[in-house]
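Okay, is this right?
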Amino acid sequence: MSQDQNAIDLFNYLLSCKYPAARNQIEQELGFSRATFFRAKDTAERLFGPAIECDKKYGGYFLKKGDSLQYPRPFFSMSEIQALVLIEQALWGIQKGLLADVLKPIRERFVPLLENQKIPVNSLRDKFKIVSVFCRPVDDQVFRTAFNAINRKKCIEMGYRSLGSEEEQHRTVSPFTIVRYRDNWYLDAFCHQRGGLRTFAMSRITTVLPSKEKFHPVDRKILRNHFSQAFGIFTGPALKTARIRFTGIAAVEIQHETWHPKQHCENLPDNSCILTIPYGNDTELVMDILKWGKDAEVLEPEDLRKRVREVIGEMRRKYEEE
């Protein structure tokens, strides 16, 4: 522990004492040696103003309080500093507008404190890098309006563009949760037009306004079951179970990946493995299977195997046309 931190601990300890405290008691309470105690005493007097005197009558140390008393500023350990910088970098990277504004007052407070400790904040920032790929930006007003509606349990009206479509649809929703999934933002909500729970990509929300329509509450247990049963961002009940065999590099890496909380990975004697996961909509699952190329094979169910085979066939035909 640094001398400054020891001085702060000693200062706060004496500040809390009603009567002079014996040196051996202080050393025991704070884990100091005799030499550490006197170094901390000298540093505390230099940093915070009041003398730390020994009362010969009672045989203990106390703060000689006066006009020069300065309370110690917050002190950060290196692990705390690293955590603060990492949080700052993470929030700045995932939603620069809203979250950067939220973080600004915190940054304005802790950066000067670190500078007082002679810690080069900018050089620490250079040691952490968070790279978001395939991320789609979300308008700050969309983010703010959805966030405020969730906190206030209010409906919102929004223009929404479905996947692969340029046509804008009007939706009124009761929002419940903002989700960060694979470097993109999604909104879990009850859709009043569809009469059920839906997940909306926030990057495809084109307009958003507060709505006067009555908020539609849904029990938290129902929400958890709906949004966590099946594989991926395509929500709903997990009606099917996929068994996928991985070989080569894929077999090694899949054992260290989490595709679903209820997955099961079986290692086989030939160094391959079989991943078993529940799913509903197969759109995202097919894409994740195909990214492993020849090292992934769907064993069950037959309709998923057929779907992957059809996609591979369409890909083959495109390349054979050249």
Notes: The mean pLDDT is 84.
